[in-house]
Amino acid sequence: MVDHASEMTLVALLVVLSAATLLRGSLRFPFTVAIYLPHVWMFVLAFTLAALGLSPWGLGVLAVLCFHALREYFTLADLRIEDRWGMFTAYLTIPFMFYYISIDWYGMFIISVPVWAFLVVPFAVTLGRQDAEGSVLAIGAIDLGLFLLVYCVGHIAYLMYYSVWMAVYLVAAVVLCDLLAYLLESRERPARIGLPLQLLAPIPAVALLGLVLAPWSGITLPHGLSLAALIPLLVAISAHVVTRLEADLGIDRGHIPAGGGGSINSLKSVLYAAPVTFHYLRYVLDDF
What we know:
The protein has helices at 4-22, 31-51, 55-76, 84-102, 106-128, 135-162, 164-185, 191-200, 202-217, 221-249, 262-267, 273-284. By secondary structure, the protein is mostly helical. Helix 2 (31-51) packs antiparallel against helix 7 (164-185), helix 4 (84-102) runs antiparallel to helix 5 (106-128) and helix 6 crosses helix 7 (164-185). It starts with a helix and ends with a helix.
């Protein structure tokens, strides 16, 4: 249960982030921070709604976030009109997956994308194509976007359904890792020094975060320390993988126009951490 003090904490955080997001132009945040803020705000909005007893609305916010990110990805992947049935199937997966979360149907949630959607998408793509050339690339591109930007983010939604503050902890830990990585990247240092620092520097901060949130999240100290070591590694791996994908999609990290990759860039650090953290907590907590 989420008590009144924690509800007010989330509401206050939402108000601060709302002001920062609305005023990010006049406050002259760095470009990467300016495109990052709206997505953090959407997570906090979803968590606040869930904490206030409006879980369906919170799930709806995260579903919209998934839809927007997937739509952005499909645009950048330059899929053809012949692939529209495959893309439609991917979009249709979103409400079904979030419905399974809303009724706590874990078994169907866990196979919704990697079994059912991955079987239906290839069939849908081939239905829309008269020419077989390019089918493999189209199916792979659609399935990859669906897996990363819907299924992985969906684990945050399921974690929120179980415990709002576990979800808050996960996203806040990823934001801390991103912030420290940004600060380290802004300083010139050899790559061989920078990578170890990006992996090690967040560990004390994430451990402290887990300790502060433990009364609300229920994550005990041993598991908090384990996650403090695990999450920075997952964030680094995720950022590395998605940065390569961004380069292939033509996303310029220094200048991202509206709809040009901002969602992908902002979500990339959480994509590996979300499912691994979810399943770690589900495994170690008896009452999950």
